[in-house]
Amino acid sequence: MHSVITEDNMTERRTIRLPVTSPTYQVCVVGEEVAIDIYRYLPREAETFEVRGTSNIDVFMLYNSKAVRKPGKGEKWPLEKGVKVSYYTAQGKEHVSSVMLYVTSVAVSLDVDVNRIGFVSRGMKNKDSWTWGPDGKGAVLLVNCDRDRNSSGPADNEDDEATEREGDVKDMSPMILTAEGPDEVFDDYRLVLEIDPYDSRRLRVYRQGKFQFKQVLGMGKLAYEVQRKNRDELRFYAEGLQFPDADFSGLIKIKLKFQRIRDWANIFTESVAFRVAPWIMTPNTQKPLEVYVCNVDSNEDFVKQLNEFVKKSRTSLNVCVNSENRGDRWIQDEMEFGYTEAPHKRFPVVFDSPRDRGLKEFPHTNVLGPDFGYVTRKIKNQDEVGTLDAFGNLEVSPPVTANGKNYPLGRILYGGSLKNPKLQMHKALREFLRAQQVQSPVQLYSTWLYVSHIDEFMSFVPAADRRTSDWLCMFVFSDVDKDQLTIDEILEDESLQETSDFCQKCIDINREIMKKELGLTEEDIIDIPILYKCDTPKKDADSFFPDMVNMLVLGNNLGIPKPFGPKINGKCCLEEKVRSQLEPLGLTCYFLDDFASYHQYCGEIHCGTNVVRKPFNFKWWQCEP
Fold it and tell me: Which of 9, 217, 223, 498 shows the greatest Cβ crowding within 10 Å of its Cβ?
């Protein structure tokens, strides 16, 4: 029998050659297929042969079916110790020679959570592959981006010292190395773990010792010779260091080699594959857990209103004081909350924008902590960072189905120009969002606005999958009593009419994009009245009165900018219009006065708040990107 190349994986089997002059002794791994070459030392007189094996060794023949007839039923080999090959002359009448192969079996394997059930799966095949979907297989690796090790230092994945604490290990993915067999065998053979140099900066692997955890792979360490010390089972833990990105698919492999020491021959090799868990953004429709707001000099009254609203929503309020925000009120622009998850652990992760204004240190110093991760994308040239890179320009839809494809974690949305490639969210941010794979990003058209953020014209509310968008209030006012002089003046203003026509076209462009990319219908869209003004014709549109679509969504409670519209029968006609649209859906509208504290600074409630939300129940690895 010759060594062969199998068609399924094209990897060469280990080959053992049998000399006829003396017995052969070999160490083999349980479950390993070994080819036995009986032709290299073939006796001159031999023309036929037979093979026998003991009960714990499966023997099967590889042969040319066109030239050799397969033995009939019942023609099996008797079982004896080891493997015995006997050679015969023609017709099998005269025995020529025999050779013995004595096998010492050892059980060697590297096991991980292939089944994604929260603990290591034993005895699995195809551990070196990773597949998506509800029936997919393959282990998950968390980016250990929270801060357990040092209360005031960097995130754990940025900590070069990598000194482990017991609680920190819970953020890592376990691996179990099995090495069962006679102890004397391992005096002549060694076990080695290896990673590719490309993956070295993507993960670290630790071995669990008696009193501490020792880093053995990663950050320049490409191989580790395992010190077995008469132990049949050794535990290791792997931590991810980087989220998927443009230059990193998220897949990492760790290889185990069982080698003979005298010649470094590989007796057995296998690999396990991990996929690094992505950063996942949570939409307005997810349950709120904590609201953030900045306390600046001019918004004390607003914070009091907000606090009452948050209490009604049974959510906690985290106030970022002036010494922490340094006068920067736009906490939505500074950061975006999401999470990361493996079968054994999940925790929230704040994505820090590169805008770097007064709040630039806040996500790292005040949000990052135990079981609260941190990620950012550094942009070396700060001159390249603009308003499109602030996270008021970053949203995510609820779960949708579009063009026959299901997006169970929604789709990320961000704004830019549809024609000018220079007016885009920074490439580093776009590539990062796309690399996460599970929330396929969509670009909307936002550069017609003064601030250019998509939260100025769209939002999502948890009302039976209904979504909200702007609708120019010129059309709403058309239904209002013309005896109101101020309304007549607005309707007769030709410049304002021209601006309204332009802005309506821009909104309609986004309306069509969202219908196509999110699978929306007209019935899904609720039009919220707005009136825009442009200081420059057909450019830099800004809301004339507080922009009600820029709302804070806390479950079924909506914190909406108070519009101060014309009163009809003593009630604001704009508020009444919005109530009539949203409250029949089971939502409650609370109108908060943000005029002096946010609107006059070209922003609204959503721009000045941020929310940590409950993760999806759906597991991202069940997606099919």
Answer: 217
